[in-house]
Amino acid sequence: MNRFEQEALPQMNALYNFARKLCRDDRDSRDLIQETMLKAYTYFHTFQEGTNCRAWLFQICKNSFINEVRRKQRQPVVLDLQESESGNRFRADGTPYRDFHLNMNNQGARDFATDTLSDEVQDALEALPSDYRTALILCDIENLSYEEVAQFMQTPVGTVRSRIHRGRAMLAGRLTEYAQERGYSRQPS
Fold first, then answer.
1. What is the SS3 assignment for 66-116?
2. Which CATH class is domain 128-181?
3. Which of 35, 36, 156, 173 has its CA 20 to 30 A from that of 47?
């Protein structure tokens, strides 16, 4: 087993989770991982032994994702809302808008609500400024230490701590607003 296989391949699950958070689409995530691993393999000779391979791979992944987003931004986007036979409206990517009233005594309804809420968490996370979102994903979802996040983001540890603190506060604020709008929580009097 060569050094690349020993150091990079064990990071595939974490890399997939990170790519999935960036892309929010399984196929795009897999494409991003493939591109990341190809670049990592090609440039593995530049990897400094003894440094954090996971952070190095995440950096390649993030840069590849940013490059792809920039490439797509240069292309014109056509938005088309379609209406199904039942009258439900769909987003341009084909996913339906959700507007349901649920009986929370039903286990299936609770499961659906949990899935929907996680979509709302994803939307709230995506609404955060890029640096805050990246810091939160790396720290809270990928369980990297503040030092590893700082290395990945190429910023001081204090800046990372600040972004994570502010990002969590912004996320909590957005989710509180959502909960109040939906009647899950009372508005302060």
1. HHHHHHHHCCCCCCCCCECCCCCEECCCCCECCCCCCCCCCHHHHHHHHHH
2. mainly alpha
3. 156
